Amino acid sequence: MTSSTLTFEPAWRDLKRRSRILWLLLFACIPGVFVLAYVLNTLLLQDASFPVVGLAWMGAIAWAGVRVASFACPRCGRAFFENWYFFKPLRGSCAHCNLIRWAKDDAPPAAPGQAPSL
């Protein structure tokens, strides 16, 4: 095992955790907002909780999205998914150093425009 493997694995686990939280919030949005609003309506005996819960849920989705977007590349330390003009959340390699997503070790960077070898 090389020392670079030890530094990449925690970063990929962090990315996976950030992505799971975002997808969970996105997929659970409709039922989650309705259930939480219903529970708050019955507890507080008010009908105003639905917009509040909806706005809070949207804020949680935005927070999780910013956390995924700000994921730092384990090799170069810059934003993995975004360069100065565009954000691509499904990017397969770093926008700056072309580190392959989920790479186990520090392979040499691929040339720009060259497909990564599998």
- In one word, what is the shape? elongated
Terminal Cα separation, in Å?
A: 20 Å
Radius of gyration: 19 Å
Mean pLDDT, as a whole number? 81
| Biggest sheet layout | none
Structure annotation, total helices: 3
The H/E string reads HHH
Broad structural category: mainly alpha
**Which blocks of ≥5 consecutive residues have pLDDT under 50?**
none
Helix content class: 40-55%
Proportion of residues in β-strands: under 5%
> How many strands?
0
Any chance you could write out the topology, listing elements then pairs?
Blueprint: H1 3-27, H2 29-44, H3 49-69
Summarize the structure.
The chain has 118 residues and is mainly alpha-helical. The chain has helices at 3-27, 29-44, 49-69.
Report on the structure:
There is one protein chain. The protein is an all-alpha fold. The chain is built from 3 helices and no strands. The chain has helices spanning 3-27, 29-44, 49-69. Helix 1 (3-27) packs antiparallel against helix 3 and helix 2 runs antiparallel to helix 3. The longest helix has 25 residues, at 3-27. It starts with a helix and ends in a 49-residue tail after the last helix. The mean pLDDT is 81.
